[in-house]
């Protein structure tokens, strides 16, 4: 029984080696010569204008979360669209597959309309 998992174990081991080997090689081979210019903070080639811990407006985070939310929905729509012909030709799941995705899209549209109504998509 355990011999079935041996290839998986080897695959994980090879993955760990390929992940750690470049880091260790870089630590051993790369020159380590820090100086004040290398260790100084910079912002696009210039000295930092202000503290990096400044407060950001919540709208930045809201837009980012909304982008991730609606971007991930495409990850659910694409696989469904690729097998749509198979869904339509299979009599047992024809209507179930269609209604399921219709409910999914309706939930998305309601969420989008709610975010739009609350002004989350407005930028001043």
Count of domain modules: 2
User: Which outline best applies?
Assistant: flat
State the major sheet.
none
Strand content: under 5%
Strands, count = 0
Q: Level of helix content?
A: 55-70%
Q: First CA to last CA: what distance? A: 62 Å
User: Mind telling me the C-alpha Rg?
Assistant: 26 Å
- Residue-averaged pLDDT, rounded? 84
Q: How many helical stretches?
A: 5
Unreliable parts? none
Structural class: mainly alpha
Order of helices and strands: HHHHH
Oligomer: single chain
What this model shows, in words?
This protein is 67% helix and 0% strand. The protein contains 5 helices and no strands. Helix 3 (58-82) runs antiparallel to helix 5 (94-117). The chain starts with 5 loop residues before the first helix and ends in a 7-residue tail after the last helix. The relative contact order is 0.06.
How would you summarize this macromolecular structure in one to three sentences?
With 124 residues, this protein is mainly alpha-helical.
List the helices and strands and how they pair.
Layout: H1 6-29, H2 36-39, H3 58-82, H4 84-89, H5 94-117
Helix pairs in contact: 3-5
